[in-house]
Each structure stands twice: as structure tokens, then as C-alpha cells.
Specification:
Elements (H helix, E strand, L loop, with lengths): L4 H6 L4 H22 L2 E5 L10 E5 L6 E2 L4 E6 L4 E5 L4 E6 L6 E2 L4 E7 L2 H10 L59 H16 L2 E9 L1 H18 L6 H14 L6 E3 L4 E3 L6 E3 L1 E3 L2 E3 L2 E2 L7 H16 L13 E5 L18 E15 L2 E15 L5 H16 L2 H5 L2
Parallel strand pairs: 12-16, 16-17
Antiparallel strand pairs: 1-8, 2-4, 2-7, 3-6, 4-5, 6-8, 9-18, 10-11, 12-15, 13-14, 17-18
Length: 410
């Protein structure tokens, strides 16, 4: 009834052995052929509730070979970018949406032929390039004179083309009149819209102060190695300002509040979620550190590092940027000395940090050189009066200059 492999060798002329061998061959061939020829349609992933559509930017083209989880396209929404990876290895057979086209959740994006990468690559390598792609041989020069007339020069009346003899050192004197035109991505458009809305809605006013960074710099210098050893993260200045802001927001709840324009009511929050502005190539994003009032310096530094890493990798989700009650923008990382930040709606205030510079200041009647930072608070004057704004900023200054106040709850 059963024939082993050795028996098949011994009785190789047996009909049962031939029939069993043929069955195995047919089964193996059919399974492989079905896998290689399978074509799937990849659809747009679901967006967050506050996002309805996005623009497609293709990373791959028809005929490109992709591996599993390799990014095929990126969908730019109002708040973030969503990467669409390939669900399997294969070849892009068809793009169902043009580059820059608008899509919604569930819209078909592209067709993928699974497992066809090796065959496609081999065929492409063996095929000669199309004749139309071969550039024509260069025409011999008419005379050994200067280069051709630049094609980007301003229009002139039709005259017979004449070669121009360039003198040494004059090659850079001819400038192109062309300009590069780039379409604004959805994130940049949304940022521009929100900033303009803030200007049109809020009665923005800015107050300033300066912070002596001597003590916080000395504290960081003294404890940075022990802090890194224990927590696995570097101790920076942002954690001090974030913690100081949470302390000041608790002291001045109006700065942490917001006006509900639809109901004409003031909403006071009993929690502190601080948005931290992060610059990316596509625009400014503001991921949120939640529950700052209960966090330590180490917790804040770790959260900032995680959010910054996600922003650099373009992995921030909409949920990471929703719901902040206050924003901190640190222009000092770019060398800014002074500036007035714009409110991040629907919030009511924003703190602007700037660079640290050695400046002469009066200390106990004497002039000393100290590391100083200008800070600015832009606030909605409809809700926050000058007294609250100035008191808030002075609380920031006091806590950063002497962090012991946080421990003593002064």
C-alpha cells in the first residue's frame, strides 16, 4: 500500500511510484505559481477622526521592486504625514492615484504583484535600454570659441545665434533669471492657516524678561554625569523650563485656560499638557507632553527625547499633537537672541525661549558677566491681564534661576 523513497528507487518502473512522484510535482508547481502571480490592491490606511483626507507623494514608481514593509508612498495630511509600507515583497504593477492626488481612508492606492521581484529585476537587467533613451552623439563644435548662450537669459529680439566669447573670470557674471516653484504641502498650509487664525482671533500681547542661567548651568554641569548614569538620558535645559512652566501655570490658572468662542465661556483646566515646538523639514510640529505637573526632570527629558525622535523619523501621529494647554518654543537652539512667538490655537499663551549669551549685568551694585537668556510670553489679552502675564513670567524666571524653589514649593 505504501512505497518508501528507497522502494521507488528500487522499483523505478513501478506505475504506483511514477504516479506518486507526478502528484508531488504537480502540487508543488501549482502552489508556487499561485504565489508568484498573486496581485493585491493596497488601500489608504484609516486616518484619525480629525483628519479626512491627504495628498499622496510617491516614493516608488511602476515596475519598482519593493521589499516587505518598504515605504511606497507618503500621505501628507493637515497635521502629520502617514507612511504606507508594502505589505509584501514584490513589484509595483500600477499606481491608482497620481502624485499629489487627494485620498481618503480606504481609497485604493496601488497594485502589487507579490513575489515577482527577482524575476522582474532579472528581466529588467537583461533588457537593453530603449532606443529613444539613447542620447544622440554630440555635434562637433563649429569653432574653438566660448561656451553656448545660456538658455535662461531674458528674451531678446530674434537674431542669428552667435557664440559668445567669455573672458577669464566672467563665467559667474551671467545669472539665471529662473526661479524654483514648489507646491506647499498640506502641513505647511495648515500651519499658515492656524497662525493667521490666531492673529485674527486673539488679542495678542507679548511681555519680556531675562533669566540668569548661572545656577541652572552649574547644576547641570555638576549632576549631568550622574543623571545620565542613573536615567540613561542627558540633562538639558528644556526640562527645567517645562517644569517651571507647569509650576507657573498652576500658580496662574488663567494662563492655562482658554476661551470657548462658541459658548463665550472660559474653560479652566486642572491639568497641564505642554506642547513643545519641534522644527522638521516639512514644517513646525508641536507634540504634547501630558501630565507635566506630576512629572520629574527625568520623565520630562525622556518624553522630549522620544517625541523628538519620532518627529525626526516622521512617525508622529495626530494623537501625539492634540490637546496641549500651553506651548514652549525654543528658538535658542538656532541662535535666536530675541523674538515674539505666536499663540498656538486654541491655547491662550506661549513661552518663547532664546539663546544663552554672556552679557554684563548688575549684581549687588557691581557689573558682572553672566550667561543670560531673554524669555517672552505672548498671551491672549482677552483672557489674561498684564498682571497675570507678568507674574507668570517672573515665576518662570524665579524658578529657573533657583530650582530649589520647586522643592520647597515657594
Amino acid at each position: 500500500a505504501g512505497i518508501s523513497a528507497s522502494q521507488c528507487v528500487t522499483f523505478k518502473n513501478s506505475p504506483r511510484c511514477e504516479r506518486r512522484s507526478s502528484v508531488y510535482q504537480i502540487r508543488y508547481f501549482n502552489t508556487s505559481a499561485a504565489h508568484r502571480n498573486e496581485v493585491i490592491t493596497v488601500k489608504t490606511p484609516a486616518f484619525a477622526e480629525s483628519v479626512t483626507e491627504g495628498d499622496v507623494r510617491w516614493e516608488k514608481a511602476v515596475g519598482d521592486t519593493v521589499s516587505e514593509d518598504e515605504v511606497v508612498c507618503e500621505i501628507e495630511t493637515d497635521k502629520t504625514s502617514v507612511q504606507v509600507p508594502s505589505p509584501a515583497a514584490g513589484v509595483i504593477e500600477e499606481l491608482l492615484v497620481p502624485d499629489g492626488g487627494k485620498v481618503e481612508g480606504g481609497t485604493p492606492l496601488f497594485r502589487l504583484k507579490k513575489g515577482a521581484g527577482a524575476a522582474k529585476t532579472t528581466a529588467a537587467a537583461a533588457a537593453p535600454p530603449p532606443a529613444a533613451e539613447t542620447p544622440p552623439p554630440p555635434a562637433p563644435p563649429a569653432a574653438p570659441v566660448g561656451g553656448p548662450i545660456p538658455t535662461s537669459m531674458p528674451p531678446v529680439p530674434p537674431v542669428p545665434a552667435q557664440p559668445i566669447q567669455s573672458k577669464p573670470g566672467q563665467e559667474d557674471a551671467v545669472h539665471s533669471a529662473e526661479a524654483e516653484i514648489v507646491k506647499m504641502n498640506r502641513m505647511r498650509l495648515r500651519i499658515a492657516q492656524r497662525l493667521k487664525e490666531a492673529q485674527n482671533t486673539c488679542a495678542m500681547l507679548t511681555t519680556f524678561n531675562e533669566v540668569d542661567m548661572s545656577n541652572i548651568t552649574e547644576m547641570r554641569k555638576q549632576y549631568k554625569d550622574a543623571f545620565l548614569k542613573k536615567h540613561g538620558i542627558k540633562l538639558g535645559f528644556m526640562s527645567a523650563f517645562v517644569k517651571a512652566a507647569a509650576y507657573a501655570l498652576t500658580d496662574q490658572p488663567a494662563v492655562n485656560a482658554v476661551i470657548d468662542d462658541s459658548t463665550k465661556e472660559i474653560v479652566y483646566r486642572d491639568y497641564v499638557d505642554i506642547s513643545v515646538a519641534v522644527a522638521t523639514p516639512k514644517g513646525l510640529v508641536v507634540p504634547v507632553i501630558r501630565g507635566v505637573e506630576g512629572m520629574s526632570f527625568a520623565d520630562i527629558e525622556k518624553t522630549i527625547n522620544e517625541l523628538g525622535e519620532k518627529a525626526r523619523k516622521n512617525e508622529l501621529a495626530v494623537e501625539d499633537m492634540d490637546g496641549g494647554t500651553f506651548t514652549i518654543s525654543n528658538g535658542g537652539v538656532f541662535g535666536s537672541m530675541f523674538g515674539t512667538p505666536i499663540i498656538n490655537p486654541p491655547q491662550s499663551a506661549i513661552l518663547g525661549m532664546h539663546g544663552i549669551f554672556d552679557r554684563p549685568v548688575a549684581i549687588a551694585g557691581k557689573v558682572e558677566i553672566r550667561p543670560m537668556m531673554y524669555v517672552a510670553l505672548t498671551y491672549d489679552h482677552r483672557l489674561i491681564d498684564g498682571r497675570e502675564a507678568v507674574t507668570f513670567l517672573r515665576k518662570i524666571k524665579s524658578v529657573v534661576e533657583d530650582p530649589r524653589e520647586l522643592l520647597l514649593d515657594m
